[in-house]
Design brief:
Elements: E1 4-8, E2 11-16, E3 19-26, E4 29-33, H1 41-52, E5 60-62, H2 68-71, H3 74-81, E6 85-87, H4 92-95, H5 111-115, E7 130-132, E8 144-148, E9 157-161, E10 166-170, H6 181-186, H7 202-213, E11 219-222, E12 228-229, H8 231-242, H9 251-254, E13 258-260, E14 263-266, H10 275-298
Parallel strand pairs: 4-5, 5-6, 6-7, 10-11
Antiparallel strand pairs: 1-2, 2-3, 3-4, 8-9, 9-10, 11-12, 13-14
Length: 299
C-alpha cells in the first residue's frame, strides 16, 4: 500500500513507482493530480482513503500531461470513482486515441534514456472521460494557479499555490538526476531538467522552467524525485532556468515535431540508434559462444 506523504497544508504525495501522484484538498473537496503508470489504481485509492476516509472520491482527476507514467491509472480510477479526467486541450488528442505522442528518443543520452527502450510506449484512449482543463473544476483549486508549461509535451501544465509558494511541476523539471543510475538509486534531491527521452521541444521546455522560476516557489513537488523545499530548492530552480542543459544531440534536439490541437502533424526523422544493433551483436556472439561450448562438451 502506498502511503500519502504530507508535503504541505492539504497536499500529499503518493510515490507510484517511476513517478509521483498528488492529493490536493481536504475531506469532501479534493482532487488527484497525476496517477502514475497502469496498475496503481488500488494503491492510490487506498492512500486517498487513508487521508480522506473510507469511500473517499475526488471531485476530479487532473493530469499535468498524458505520458504513460502519469496517466496510466487514470481510466480505472475515473470509472471506479465516476469522475472526469481533465487535461490541457493540447493533451487531449493523446488521451482519446486521436494521436500518439512523439515517440521517446533513446539516443539523447543518460541512464533513463537508455532504459526507455525497455518500457512500453503505450497510449491510452479515455474518450468520453477526458475534458479540457479549466480553473473552476473544483473548490480544492480555488487558491491554485494553472501554469501552462509546454516543452516536455505539447500541453503540459503545472500548478502553483502562491499562499505558500508551492509548485506541482509535473515533468517541467525533475528533482532527481535521471541521467545517473546512482543518483536515482540514492534518491538524491536535485533540481534537474525534464526527462530528456520524452521532451520534444527544448526551447519551450527552457522557457517553461524560466516561467516557473519567476514564481519563486519554495516547495517543489515534481513528477519524478523527492519533494524539495526551502531557499536551496528555489536557488537550484533559478540556476536551472539560467543554465538550462539542452542535450548535445537527439531527434528533437535537431528538430522539434509539429503538433496542434489534433495531435502530431509531422515528426522529425529518427536519429540512428546503434544500441539495438550492438545488443543484437552481443546476443549473437553469446549464442555462438554457448553453441561452441556445448559442441566442445559433447566431444
Amino acid at each position: 500500500m502506498s502511503a500519502a506523504e504530507r508535503i504541505a497544508d492539504n497536499v500529499f504525495r503518493i510515490a507510484t513507482g517511476l513517478s509521483n501522484a498528488y492529493l490536493v484538498g481536504e475531506p469532501g473537496s479534493w482532487v488527484l493530480i497525476d496517477c502514475g503508470s497502469e496498475g496503481y489504481a488500488d494503491e492510490i485509492r487506498a492512500a486517498a482513503e487513508s487521508r480522506f476516509g473510507k469511500g473517499a472520491r475526488p471531485e476530479a482527476i487532473l493530469l499535468t500531461h498524458g505520458h504513460f507514467d502519469h496517466s496510466g491509472s487514470a481510466g480505472t480510477l475515473a470509472r471506479s470513482w465516476n469522475v472526469s479526467i481533465f487535461a490541457h486541450q493540447l493533451e487531449i488528442p493523446y488521451l482519446t486515441g486521436q494521436s500518439k505522442y512523439p515517440p521517446p528518443d533513446p539516443t539523447v543520452g543518460g541512464f533513463m534514456s537508455f532504459m526507455i527502450r525497455f518500457f512500453p510506449n503505450k497510449a491510452y484512449d479515455y474518450n468520453g472521460l477526458v475534458k479540457p482543463l479549466t480553473a473552476n473544476i473544483s473548490s480544492a483549486l480555488e487558491r491554485w494557479q494553472i501554469v501552462e508549461t509546454p516543452g516536455h509535451s505539447p500541453g503540459h501544465v503545472s500548478f502553483f499555490r502562491s499562499s505558500d509558494s508551492l509548485l506541482i511541476a509535473g515533468d517541467a523539471f525533475t528533482t532527481v538526476n535521471q541521467d545517473s543510475a546512482l543518483d536515482m538509486l540514492r534518491r538524491k534531491r536535485e533540481v534537474c531538467r525534464p526527462p530528456v527521452y520524452y521532451t520534444c521541444d527544448w526551447e519551450s521546455a527552457h522557457e517553461s522552467v524560466q516561467k516557473l522560476a519567476a514564481l519563486n516557489p519554495r516547495t517543489l513537488a515534481a513528477g519524478h524525485g523527492e519533494p524539495m523545499s526551502g531557499s536551496e530548492a528555489t536557488r537550484q530552480l533559478h540556476e536551472l532556468a539560467l543554465h538550462f542543459p539542452i542535450p548535445e544531440d537527439g531527434r528533437y534536439v535537431r528538430q522539434k515535431p509539429v503538433t496542434n490541437e489534433t495531435g502530431v502533424v509531422k515528426l522529425p526523422p529518427p536519429v540512428p540508434d546503434l544500441v539495438p544493433r550492438i545488443a543484437a551483436g552481443v546476443g549473437i556472439a553469446a549464442a555462438a559462444a554457448i553453441a561452441v561450448g556445448l559442441a566442445n562438451r559433447s566431444r
